Amino acid sequence: MKSPKIKSILISQPKPEGDKSPYFDLAKKHNLKVDFRPFITVSPIHYKEFKSQKINIADFTAIILNSRNSVDHFFRLCGELKIEMPPETKYFCVNDSIANYLSKYIQVRKRKVFTGKATEVELLNVIKNHPTEKFLFPCSDWRKPDIEKFMKKNKFQFKEALIYKIVSSDLSDLTHVNYDIIVFFSPADIRSLFENFPKFKQNETLIASFGATTSKAIVDAKLKVNIAAPSVEYPSMSMALDKFIEARNKEKK
After folding, report:
1. Which residues, including other chains, have CB under 8 Å from residue 42's CB and lie 6 or more apart?
2. Where in the sequence is the domain holding 55, given as residue range(s)?
3. What's this model's pTM, rounded to 2 decimal places?
4. What's the CA gap between 220 and 215, in Å, rounded?
5. What is the phi/psi pair of residue 140, to 5°?
6. β-sheet bridge partners, residue 158
C-alpha cells in the first residue's frame, strides 16, 4: 500500500511572530497547510507560593537558565520580591540565544555570563569550572534531570527553584481535525495529547519528534516516531521535515 502525499502539518507550538519562519518557507515550498497550536501553556508560580519553598535568591552567586521562560519568570519573581541581583552574579545559559535574551533584564556586558553550545549537558562542561559558586536553578515542574544529577554527583552547592508550571492546553476544538504530520517538542506535549484525547490512536498519522526526551515519551506512549531531530544531518526540525516531505511527495509524482 502506497503512502499518501503529505498535505498538512500541525506544529505543537505558538505561531511565529512576523512573516519569517522556516515553517512558512516549508509550507510554500511543498504547498502545505501548516497550523500552529501550542499543546502546553506556562502558568507562573505566585511569589507567595514561591516563598513556601524557603529559598532566598540573594544567597546564590550563580543562576542557571535553560529557557526564555526561566529568564522571564526568574526576573518577574525578583521584581515581585523586590530583589535586585548583585552585579557580580554569574549567569549560566544553555545557549547564546538565551544569553542574549538576558539583555531584556540586565546589562549583559557588565555581568558575568557563561554559555553552553546548545544543550544542558554541554552547559555542565562550563559549570564544572566554577566549583565554588552557589547555584540556583529556576525551573518548571517539567525539566530534565541532567543538571540536578550532575550538581549532586559533583557536590556543588545547588538548589532548584520551581518558578512556573507547564499546563496542558485545551485542545477540544481539534477533536475532528486530522493532520498528516504532528510535530512534538517536549514530553509535556505528549502528556497534553493524551489528557485531551485519552483514546488517541496514531493510525496513518506521522509523528515528528524534537529531542531525545520527547522521542522517549512518544515511544513510552506506544506511538511511533517517524521523523526525528536534531541530528548531525538535520540540526533543525524544519530541515528534517523538509527532507522527509520531499522524499515522500516525490514518490507520488
Report:
1. 69, 73, 140, 164, 165, 166, 167
2. 43-167
3. 0.79
4. 9
5. -100, 180
6. 135
Q: Is residue 86 part of a domain?
A: yes
**Are residue 47 and residue 132 in the same domain, yes or no?**
yes
242 Cβ contact partners less than 8 Å away, ≥ 6 residues apart:
26, 29, 30
- Residues whose CB is less than 8 angstroms from the CB of residue 3 and which lie 6 or more positions away in sequence, other chains included: 248, 251
How many distinct structural domains can be found in the chain?
Answer: 2
End-of-domain residue from the set 150, 167, 184: 167
The identity of residue 8, as a single letter, is S
Q: What is the CATH number of the domain that holds 92?
A: 3.40.50.10090
Read off the pLDDT of residues 70-129 as tens digits, 9 standing for 90 and up. 999 999 999 999 999 998 999 999 888 889 899 999 987 767 999 887 667 788 889 999
Cell of 169: 492546553
Among the candidates 121, 144, 167, a domain finishes at 167
Q: Which three cell numbers stand for residue 148?
A: 540536578
Backbone dihedral angles phi then psi of residue 113, each to the nearest 5 degrees: -120, 130
- Is 2 inside any structural domain? no
Reduced to 3 states, what is the DSSP secondary structure of residue 40? Answer: strand
Q: At what angle do helices 237-251 and 22-30 cross, to 10 degrees?
A: 10
